[in-house]
Amino acid sequence: MKIKCSVFCIIILLVSSAIAIGETVSKSTSDDQLTVEVTVYNNNLGLVKDTRKVELPAGEGELWFMDVASSVIPVSVRAKSLNYPEDFTVREQNYEYDLINTDKLLDKYVGKKIKIIDWNEFQDKKDVVEAILLSNNQGQVYKINNEIYLGYPGYKVLPEIPGNLIAKPTLMWLYDNKTKKDHNLEVSYLTRDISWKADYVVVLNKDDSSADISGWVTIDNKSGAAYKDARLKLIAGEVHQVSEVSEERLMKVARAEMAAPQFEEKPFFEYHIYDLQRKTTVKDNETKQISLLEATGVKTQKEFLFYGTRNYFTMRFNEREKQKQPVNVYIKYNNSKNNNLGMPFPAGIMRLYKKDDKGSLQFIGEDKIEHTPKDEEIRLKIGEAFDVTAERVQTDYKQITTRLHESEWEITLRNHKKEDITVGIVEPLFGNWRVIDSSHPYKKVDAYTIRFDVKVPKDEEVKVKYRVKIGL
Known about the structure:
- Among the domains are: 102-157, no CATH class; 301-471, no CATH class.
- It contains 3 helices and 32 strands.
- The protein has helices at residues 2-23, 102-108, 247-254; strands at 25-28, 33-41, 45-54, 59-66, 78-81, 88-96, 113-120, 125-135, 141-144, 147-150, 155-157, 170-177, 183-192, 194-204, 210-221, 227-236, 263-268, 271-282, 286-299, 301-307, 323-325, 328-334, 348-355, 361-369, 377-384, 388-401, 404-415, 421-428, 432-438, 443-446, 449-456, 460-471.
- The longest helix is centred in the first third of the chain and has 22 residues, at 2-23.
- Residues 1-20 form the signal peptide.
């Protein structure tokens, strides 16, 4: 009796210990969420701050923090208790991404017995067989009734899901907790596969002298997690990254608070941060668009530009061969407060539209801008002019020495439009250059560029002639 009693006591102790160990394993899902904040960067990166109310037993234990992004960067994870920071310490962290799928489930049952159900068409019934899965490497191998089958038709039925497989990516911590009160646990981590970009719509007025501009933010979330009722912030700027992401620097970028109808913009470090002034839900595998800015009556200017190339000035061309070249069309404006703007523009594509004579809006071109601060000029290449043509001909060429060249050029501009225009001729020179003679005044743009601004009346042509000497 004493022996039986001792055995019984040992069993009770083992069961009690197992229960006690089981009680120290806690789980937290998105249902426990108090707040979530997402900061999205231009370069396919996001910072998530997920705050949850978590009940933990005192002492050492294990916490499964579930419903995190599947693209999480584990080395960037940081967990802290907001209300009892001195009482909660993480001793060890694991990131479990051995998620459930067909191959992994079958891998766990290699050497074990499973059921296979197949429909018997001839007898109109289900056939159920028991099989031992011998291998799941490039196909299944089964042992059924002492025979080896290379594959077998039907549905594979497993008795249960192995305990070491999980359905969602999970952060697991071994912790030390000194209080029985609930923790407001803030978990922050970086994740890949979430990004944002800016797109703009520019509608020009009838004479191209002003425009209405609207900006949109597009967020693409493929991080493997949904962010419900999230505080959303966007970082515009090039945040440096190395092969191992610099967590400390990125954390600093994201701690700032962040003008537009919905976003509040502020400078932060060497970037700009845009803070959405309301909560929003960003679903997994979702593309979401949010209005960034609206501006009306922005003063614009249309510009016609004709560009040369450097190789013109050190070789002979056929004097009778006229080279037709396009005249490019640009729209430019100043990003200033006086021009109803003055907000830093994140990099993106600007698409331009204009109404035709029947009042229907038509697309007229697009261009990409880089991150642009306030009080800077934005210039957009729209396309090539249809009714403005340009021809270039070399009227004289001399190679004075092996390193000294002299050439003369005639550029003919024709304006078939109904109004007078000004065309800018931009000539890129090099070496030691000197304009010997010119029919029109020019200005020196920089050390190796000159520009002629030529007025061309409607339905007329203007010839610009100049002679230049180039020393190599």
